[in-house]
Amino acid sequence: MIQGIHMSTVHQLFNFLQPILGSMVDLLGLFHNYSPVVELILELFCEAAKRCICYLGQSDSRMLYQHSVAVIRMYAQHNQGKRSVEKESEEEQFRDILLLMELLTNLLSKDFIDLAPHGNFLNDIRLKSFA
């Protein structure tokens, strides 16, 4: 569903997606020991940030930021000082950190590419014409 988001559908799909993102934070808290579940949740947030953030307005962007910070805090809370003796645990944790870095990069892209409609666009034009 997230991969089908475009400028014309972002608001309807984000309104549907927003409660899901909130419950994914709780789901991460429950299944923090299962690396496939953790990876899927982080991938969902990465895709949501990558596909939605440049089209969202200020309030929706703030909601996505808040959910993203909550998922990062939940991940950090459960992985701080975590030790594992499994062979593949280092590679799995590397993948988690890579996804977290990708999420943060996608969230920062709002500063460079902002395609959201601005409500005060006409007022900005009027003020600039007088300057």
Commentary on this structure:
- There is one protein chain.
- The chain is mainly α and 131 residues long.
- The protein has one domain (2-130).
- It has helices at residues 10-30, 35-52, 58-79, 89-108, 121-130.
How far the N terminus sits from the C terminus, by CA atoms, comes to 45 Å
Structural class: mainly alpha
**Radius of gyration from CA coordinates:** 18 Å
| Total number of helices | 5
| Strand residue content | under 5%
Topology, number of strands: 0
Uncertain segments are: 120-131
Largest sheet: none
Helix content: 55-70%
Brief description of this entry?
The chain has 131 residues and is an all-alpha fold.
Keywords:
mainly alpha, disordered C terminus, 131 residues, 5 helices, 69% helix
Strand-helix topology:
Layout: H1 10-30, H2 35-52, H3 58-79, H4 89-108, H5 121-130
Helix pairs in contact: 1-2, 1-3, 2-3, 2-4
